[in-house]
Design a protein that fits this description.
By secondary structure, the chain is an alpha/beta fold. The protein has two domains: 12-144, Rossmann fold, CATH 3.40.50; 147-341, Dehydroquinate synthase-like, alpha domain. It is built from twelve helices and nine strands. The strands form three sheets. Strands 2-1-3-4-7 form a five-stranded parallel β-sheet. It has a two-stranded antiparallel ribbon with strand order 5-6. A hairpin with a 2-residue loop joins strand 5 (115-120) and strand 6 (123-130). Helix 9 packs antiparallel against helix 10 (268-282). The chain starts with 11 loop residues before the first strand and ends with a helix.
Length: 345
């Protein structure tokens, strides 16, 4: 692996998911083979993306005398990309880092674009930076090790890219009869990555156009945070597995497509197609919700970073394959969208 061109670090700190380390204990050995490496394992799970973990990593970097001439490698899924990127961006006011994503979600989303962050009071990515990695190394072979839940997690984000910018991709994805790593085409992964990279190049600091990448995320993050707050580590599930980010975004896309339809942007037939395709794979995530539950989810949507003065900002769809950012909706509209979402769930 050739990285950073002419950069030759004095030391390398590897921030890695401990489960990934068990699966690929020697994967990084050939990278900068003659340079001292220090592995800093972290526990997987969104609940560990917090300031305590950051302080633990900062302290370890300091004890190892990691400095501006050193390099951090983030090795794992989306949680490690977010956490490790934030640590690298803030330690000594920033040292170089590269991302090696090992999940479908992190390959097409978290590893690229430069958004790094941690959760605060279980609010997703409430504290963070925008700082691009020096390089992102993609190896599709990692997908072979992913359980079905993790493939679905990334597939939710893949559907997002199709809905906001690639009707042809949407048509190909909706035709899948099963989601298996052998069915995930490399060109699909590349298409998603290229779309995000081009969007980020036009709006690195997320002031307008980049908001289209958040389609499904305003309500999705509200759902994800609500389940974490209410259930902790024992969340509503498919087959007794926890709800990850991509599942919540999938639900958020259905809800935000509904709002697009209600606001007259998206046709009824397009909305019904989106709802049908997504709920085929994500229709048993949420348990029945009370009015209080729905109200709490919408309150959490208010923490979204695009919101201003208590108004909820979402990205809508004009049609399948074309997004329209920065539309304001009321709390009551969001409640209706969530209620509509779970009628058949």
């Amino acid at each position: 692996m050739n990285t950073l061109n002419n950069f030759s670090p004095n030391k390398i700190a590897i921030i890695a998911d401990q489960n990934v380390l068990q699966l690929f204990p020697y994967y990084l050995d050939k990278l900068y083979a003659d340079i001292p490496k220090f592995v800093l394992p972290v526990l997987p799970g969104e609940q560990n993306k917090n300031i305590d973990e950051v302080v633990y990593l900062w302290q370890n970097l300091q004890e190892l005398h990691i400095d501006k001439k050193s390099l951090i490698i983030n090795f794992g899924g989306g949680m490690v990309m977010d956490l490790g990127g934030f640590v690298a961006s803030t330690y000594q006011r920033g040292i170089p880092f590269i991302n090696i994503p090992t999940t479908l979600l992190s390959m097409i989303d978290a590893a690229i674009g430069g958004k790094n962050g941690i959760n605060l009071n279980n609010v997703k990515n409430a504290v963070g930076t925008i700082n691009l990695p020096q390089e992102v190394i993609i190896n599709p072979q990692f997908l072979m090790t992913l359980p079905h839940q993790q493939l679905l997690n990334g597939f939710g984000e893949m559907l997002k890219y199709a809905l906001i910018g690639n009707k042809t991709l949407w048509d190909e994805l909706k035709a899948l009869k099963s989601i298996h790593y052998q069915n995930i085409k490399k060109e699909w992964v590349n298409s998603c990555m290229e779309f995000k990279e081009k969007t980020v190049q036009k709006d690195l600091y997320d002031t307008g156009l980049r908001h289209i990448l958040n389609f499904g995320h305003t309500i999705g993050h509200g759902i994800e945070t609500w389940t974490l707050n209410k259930y902790g580590d024992a969340r509503p599930c498919i087959s007794a597995e926890k709800i990850p980010h991509g599942y919540a975004v999938a639900l958020g896309m259905v809800a935000e497509s509904y709002l697009s339809y209600c606001h007259g942007l998206l046709s009824q037939s397009a909305y019904e197609e989106i709802r049908t395709v997504i709920l085929q794979n994500y229709n048993k995530i949420l348990t029945p919700l009370s009015d209080d539950d729905i109200s709490e989810i919408v309150k959490l949507c208010l923490f979204d970073k695009k919101n201003i003065d208590g108004r909820i900002n979402i990205t809508m769809l004009e049609t399948i394959g074309k997004a329209s950012p920065n539309h304001w909706v009321s709390k009551e509209e969001c409640e209706e969208a969530i209620r509509n979402l779970i009628v058949e769930a």
